[in-house]
Write a structure and sequence with these properties.
Distance between the termini of chain B: 26 Å
CATH architecture of the largest domain in chain A: Orthogonal Bundle
Radius of gyration of chain A: 20 Å
CATH class of the largest domain in chain A: Mainly Alpha
Structural class of chain B: mainly beta
CATH class of chain B: Mainly Beta
Largest sheet of chain B: 5 strands, mixed
Number of strands of chain B: 37
Strand content of chain A: 5-15%
Number of helices of chain A: 10
Number of strands of chain A: 7
CATH topology of the largest domain in chain A: Cytochrome Bc1 Complex, Chain D, domain 2
Strand order of the largest sheet of chain B: 1-31-32-33-34
Oligomer: heterodimer
Number of domains of chain A: 3
Largest sheet of chain A: 5 strands, antiparallel
CATH architecture of chain B: 8 Propeller
Helix content of chain B: under 10%
Chain lengths: 270, 571
């Protein structure tokens, strides 16, 4: 991304470690579905070697644990440039033309090892079986939950929240559950909610898109792109970082479980 | 004067509007001139005047123009984009095919969209892109690997992606121009006239991305005007449509220019007029049916594309009010055509030229012998390989009633090669970026090379006797902004610059003409006299045309220079 988020790094909630554990536990079945070339590097040893290669080549931009900084956060499991083995390999091998992301001086094997490390921190590839009923969950999504007002799956739906295509691949069940009940627990960088209080006129709440010392940009709750000069603002409030409503009181336990099952079934990045 | 009062009023109103007013309906595009604070399509409006009705910046205060913000493109490619501006949000492309939404007052990024082309794409002249179209809530972009992409303007999310054509065929195709959004269609041109392909112009449904029609720029068997190519040469005739076009709502006609025939510098195997190469096409928007065409350069051997942008205006010719098309062509002549019929009215050279004595009543040139490319290379031909005009935008000001052309007054070396096909795995000279140090990518098997000659760096040309660089000294080749009276073709004034340009011009209601030189001097000229009133030394190449817009009620001028988009405003 071209806009900065350097002052953002916050301690993650417990579920990050849960998700890593889940990741390790469930990695093996996933391997079977990977193409033969790369899969031979999806071993614990390769991942460890990948981790130290990552420290040498990548950490100064992406952070020691891939948490981001000058480079993007690699722990979200969301890949703008594609999350398949082949796509990650191409990204790391060739860099991303026109961005700061460089090509790497490493052998092809070493690149594959870094691919396997990057995947392991991206919470990708987790296969868990959700107890709920995903068809009933879809009905909650489309009906009572009104989720499509803010979320898209692919090209259809709202844009205030992240696109949920592939969310079941990049997030584990615990994460999904928590997203519905305590959305504030972990807000992706690109979806930080703020409220700006102009010196004259009503406050505007939205998702922060960009910011420097002079101005701040956001997408407001009507999805309009807005920009404010800071000298025209009384205050910028950041105390409610998520625009996502908490659904613990709105939906009953069964509905929540069904919804989680539905979300978990969304595995394709469209 | 009435107009100017309206303008100031519009500015005040625009200052109050903070949030963006999407969608950009077809009605808004039709009346783009009623929204001088916005820049809604590549050439500003369907008549392609590239004229801004804003006059906050004018001949009286332009000296106080200062750089306000930059957008750092961080791409080594030529930066040819024309941004769009909609109610305080700027949308622009950055090579290869990335799209950014910026706050137009500060240049801060609102969202970014990255498109990944395959490593090998087939481009004669760099991995460039010239910009976007907008319609409704959607932005449209053509890609180097021949896709049309629709993005949601609010979020930058990709909505759909349509394959235009297989970019690897026939030596390679690409799509580098900005699309043109008209009514419910997106008109899309293609590049690839330097390869033995076959050109077309397409229209896509703006909502679904489905193709509505395709017009073949080389007539196919059974179609009208088939048979203007000797033998089978029509099959590999090229004739691309790589720039942008114009639209006349009164007659529902799209006007679009076409490129050279292939092979570029060698017509031995393609005797005939080679229709519709180096022509302007008038097509029905709904059906893509040809209404008329006019060919500027029959059987071209100098790569004198007619991919300039059609400038549409009206005026009195021999006592009669007519709908006109003004066309400063790459072959060095300014043409005036009747836009309803395609009839030739007049042609006058606006740069030095050596190849035509005059024109018959139909506008067919009377060609002077001895200007053909040769195996050894001929360096006495004007204009040069890049023409007197090229793809850079011209501008028409309704205030001065002058047409402004940033012209290339130069000669170069024209060489002729035998046409040759590449062997499997062999490297084509011109399928990658033109920047120094770019790695050459293997071309697909059995494809031809650029143009069989021309003005190329040393390449696989066994006949080349004269490998010297083809650029001439400033005392014999230069650039100039020419102000042409479009009705008579007379030059009113010229403003000379040291090198032939690659940037276009924009005129404004402040009586200014903006542009930038190859050396990166950005300038504002007095539209009435050509006097330079302001400049800024950006010191990098300009390969783009300027725009003007309002943000928070204040007028700005933007132009891509080097890999940076520069934006100027009054202090």
């Amino acid at each position: 991304m071209a806009f900065g988020n350097s002052n953002r790094i916050r301690p993650r909630s417990v579920r990050r470690s849960l998700s890593l554990a889940a990741c390790a536990a469930f990695f093996t079945p996933v391997l079977l579905t990977q193409p033969p070339g790369p899969s031979s590097f999806d071993t614990p040893e390769s991942r460890e070697q990948g981790r130290s290669l990552f420290q040498t080549h990548c950490a100064y931009c992406h952070g020691a644990r891939g948490e981001g900084g000058r480079g993007v956060d690699l722990t979200t499991g969301v890949y703008r440039h594609g999350g398949s083995d082949a796509e990650l390999y191409a990204t790391i091998r060739n860099g991303i033309p026109g961005t700061e992301m460089p090509t790497v001086r490493a052998t092809n094997d070493e690149v594959w090892k870094m691919v396997s490390f990057v995947k392991s921190i991206g919470a990708g590839g987790v296969v868990e079986s959700a107890p709920g009923d995903r068809v009933a969950g879809k009905a909650v999504y489309d009906g009572k939950g009104k989720c499509a007002a803010c979320h898209s799956i692919g090209a259809e739906g709202g844009i205030l929240g992240p696109n949920l295509a592939g969310v079941g691949r990049r997030r584990n069940l615990a994460y999904l559950r928590e997203s519905l009940v305590t959305p504030e627990a972990d807000v992706p960088v690109l979806y930080r909610a703020i409220q700006v209080m102009p010196k004259t006129g009503p406050p505007v709440r939205g998702i922060r898109l960009n910011e420097d010392d002079l101005s701040i940009q956001l997408r407001d709750s009507q999805n309009n792109l807005r920009s404010f000069f800071k000298e025209e603002l009384k205050e910028i409030r950041r105390d409610k970082p998520s625009l996502m409503p908490a659904y613990g009181d709105v939906l009953n336990a069964q509905e929540l479980e069904n919804l989680v099952a539905y979300l978990s079934s969304l595995r394709e990045t469209l | 004067m009435r107009r100017r009062v309206f303008c100031i009023f519009a500015l005040a109103a625009a200052g109050v509007v903070v949030a963006q007013r999407l969608p950009v309906t077809y009605e808004r595009l039709l009346h783009a001139d009623q929204e001088p604070g916005n820049w809604l399509m590549y050439s500003g409006g369907y008549n392609s005047w590239r004229y801004s009705r804003l006059d906050q910046i004018n001949t009286g205060n332009v000296k106080k123009l200062k750089a306000q913000w930059l957008f750092q493109g961080r791409s080594p490619e030529k930066f040819e984009t024309t941004p769009l501006v909609v109610d305080g949000v700027m949308y622009l492309t950055r090579p290869e095919n990335d799209v950014f939404a910026l706050d137009a007052a500060t240049g801060r990024v609102l969202w970014a969209y990255n498109y990944r082309n395959p490593v090998s794409t087939y481009n004669c002249c760099g991995k460039v892109n010239r910009g976007l179209a907008i319609l409704g809530n959607r932005l449209y972009m053509n890609t180097l690997d021949m896709h049309l992409i629709a993005l949601d303007a609010k979020s930058g999310r990709e909505l759909w992606k349509t394959a235009i054509y297989d970019y690897t065929l026939d030596g390679g195709y690409a799509a580098t121009g900005a699309p043109l959004a008209v009514k419910d269609k997106i008109i899309v041109g293609m590049a690839g006239g330097e390869h033995p392909g076959s050109g077309f112009l397409d229209a896509y449904d703006a909502v679904t991305g489905k193709r509505v029609w395709r017009f073949h720029t080389v007539p196919q068997p059974g179609e009208a005007n088939f048979g203007t190519w000797a033998g089978d040469s029509w099959k590999t005739g090229g004739v691309a449509t790589w720039n942008n076009g114009s639209y006349d709502p009164e007659t529902n006609t799209v006007f679009w220019g076409t490129s050279n025939p292939w092979p570029d510098y060698n017509a031995d195997a393609r005797k005939g007029d080679n229709l519709y190469s180096c022509s302007v096409l008038a097509l029905d928007l709904d059906t893509g049916k040809l209404k008329w065409f006019f060919q500027f350069t029959p059987q071209d051997t100098h790569d004198w594309d007619a991919t300039q942008i059609p400038v549409l205006l009206s005026g009195e010719v021999r006592g009669q009010k007519r709908n006109l098309m003004a066309w400063p062509a790459r072959n060095g002549f300014y043409y005036l055509l009747d836009r309803d019929t395609g009839k030739f009215i007049l042609a006058k050279s606006f740069v030095r030229q050596t190849w035509a004595k005059g024109f018959d009543d139909n506008g067919k040139p009377q060609v002077i012998a001895g200007n053909e490319p040769t195996v050894e290379g001929i360096d006495t031909v004007f204009p040069g390989v890049d023409g007197g005009a090229n793809w850079m935008s011209h501008s028409y000001s309704p205030l001065t009633r002058l047409l402004y052309v940033f012209a290339r007054d130069e000669r170069r070396v024209f060489t002729k090669n035998s046409v040759r096909h590449l062997n499997d795995g062999e490297v084509s000279e011109l399928n990658t970026a033109s920047r120094p140090g770019a790695t050459l990518q293997p071309a697909p098997a059995n494809t031809g090379i650029f143009g069989a000659g021309g003005n190329l760096p040393a390449g696989p040309n066994p006949n080349r006797a004269n490998p010297r660089p083809a650029r001439f000294a400033p005392e014999e080749s230069w650039g100039k902004v020419v102000a042409i009276d479009p009705l008579s073709g007379e030059t009113k004034w010229e403003h000379k610059v040291i090198s032939p340009p690659w940037g276009g011009v924009m005129s404004t209601a402040g009586n200014l003409v903006f542009g930038g030189t190859t050396e990166g001097m950005i300038f504002a000229l007095d539209a009435r006299t050509g006097e330079r009133l302001w400049h800024f030394s950006a010191n990098e190449r300009v390969y783009a045309s300027p725009i003007s817009f309002l943000a928070n009620g204040k007028q700005y001028v933007s132009l891509a220079v080097g890999d940076v988009l520069m934006t100027f405003g009054l202090e």
